[in-house]
């Protein structure tokens, strides 16, 4: 460990400052701390201590991230990829999805239909317009079956 000058932030100080604003995945937090010039060994020790104290949790980050992306109308494919890109392990991602779906609040087919109906006023008159709607949903992270369901039911009367 190197000597710190008075007033220089420790990895823990910087991590706490970041975590006060929002949840971070461990890998994401490690990148941020390394970018601030902290040594890799210090960062790892700090992250271990934060996780042990319950201040940083990949599971909590995944749940929070999943809820925020659901509110934006994003599909499961995009959410999974984004979580994995942020360094969250697949098992943690799978657990977060399982817990969300077990709660019964997530119906991907209904979310796809709702997202499509919010963006477009109807199914489209031409094949080109229908393809545009399909691309919109695929870009949002919905799979083929969810896209087909949404195109068939997005404008049904409730």
TrEMBL record:
* PANTHER family named in the record: REGULATORY PROTEIN RECX FAMILY PROTEIN (PTHR33602)
Q: Which InterPro entries match?
A: RecX_HTH_1st (IPR053926), RecX_HTH_2nd (IPR053924), RecX_HTH_3rd (IPR053925), Regulatory_RecX (IPR003783), WH-like_DNA-bd_sf (IPR036388)
Its lineage reads:
Bacteria, Pseudomonadati, Pseudomonadota, Gammaproteobacteria, Oceanospirillales
Query: Which residues are in the RecX first three-helical domain?
Result: 12-48
> Domain of life of the organism in this record?
Bacteria
Protein name (Swiss-Prot/TrEMBL): Regulatory protein RecX
Q: Which keywords fit this entry according to its UniProt record? A: Cytoplasm
Q: Where in the cell is it found?
A: Cytoplasm
Species: Halomonas shengliensis
The gene behind this protein is recX
Which cellular component appears as one GO term in the record?
A: cytoplasm
